[in-house]
Amino acid sequence: MWDLDNTIVDTNSVWANAQTKLLSSLFSYIGLETSGVKIDEELLQLRRIDYKLCQEFGTPHYDFKYLLIALFYFYRDGIKGDELIEVTRKADQDSIPEFTKILLKDFYKNLDKIPPLFDGILDVLKFCNKRSYQLLISEGSKEVKEKIIKKYELPKYFNEIRVIPKGGKENEFKGLRKRYPNLDIIVFDDLSKNIDFGNQIHAKTVWVRFCYTINGYDIFGEKPKTRPDYTVFSVKELMRVVKSFLKL
Ligand SMILES: [Mg+2]
């Protein structure tokens, strides 16, 4: 069983791109002097704020108007730390100028861009497809995910592809536990939910870390109860791992 985002496609690069553009627009909107600004460092700053908001709202799919509001308070008013999260939480639509709603709209539009495949990942999928039942589970907008699936012809590599609505993974896993009690291996990038599910059905769990993540384990707000069986940092390593236990 496979996850799509950040496991097969580099969704992180789409996010980094959208977040960088959001920062640039925001800086020019609030008239911030940007000559000495290193955008990569500001991107990290944005991600730290985003990470805190994920924890605050209990989901990575919170309403990003709060991210924009937080960035405003941070860059325009210099509010930091816990106070930043507190004022952001209490803020309403009026806390940000009308004009900036276009920034938010652009941000969402940029997030919907089709991410590139990780180099060599299709070879891994091809290898697995010959040897085991291949199931792809992706959480998010049906329209966006289906574009990705079509573009990379993913049905060629999977017996079954399921796109489920945001926040629906836990429920999905309940059904999968009954239908597929014998999944051999599950490959994913976010530890929360996936690893517990893998352990419940006694599948080998493979945590791919092709992308940059903050604080590793608890980026999605939940700590896994156990460690994955394998942690891989490249597609090459992933191929080695799947080869080691899907040999005929
Ligand atoms: Mg993912």
How much of the sequence lies in strands comes to 5-15%
CATH class of the largest domain: Alpha Beta
Bound compounds, each kind once, are: magnesium ion
Largest beta sheet, briefly? Answer: 3 strands, parallel
- CATH level-two architecture of the largest domain: 3-Layer(aba) Sandwich
- Counting DSSP H or I runs of 4 or more residues, the number of helices is 10
N to C succession of SSEs = EHHHHHHEHEHEHEEH
End-to-end span in angstroms?
18 Å
The computed structural class is: mainly alpha
Q: Please tell me what the overall shape is.
A: elongated
The total tally of domains equals: 2
| Overall pLDDT score | 88
What is the number of strand segments? Answer: 6
CATH superfamily annotation of the largest domain: HAD superfamily/HAD-like
- The strand order across the widest sheet is 1-2-3
Question: How is the CATH topology of the largest domain named?
Answer: Rossmann fold
Unreliably modeled segments: 215-221
**Relative helix content:** 40-55%
Q: How would you explain this protein's 3D organization?
A:
By secondary structure, this protein is mostly helical. The protein contains ten helices and six strands; from the N terminus they run βααααααβαβαβαββα. It has two domains: 2-9 and 115-245, HAD superfamily/HAD-like (Rossmann fold); 11-111, no CATH class. Helices cover 50% and strands 10% of the residues. The chain has a three-stranded parallel sheet, with helices on one face. A three-stranded parallel sheet has the order 4-5-6, with helices on both faces. α7 links the parallel β2 and β3 (160-164). α1 crosses α3 and α1 packs antiparallel against α5. The chain is elongated, with a radius of gyration of 20 Å. Residues 215-221 have low confidence and may be disordered. The chain binds magnesium ion. Magnesium ion binds next to loops.
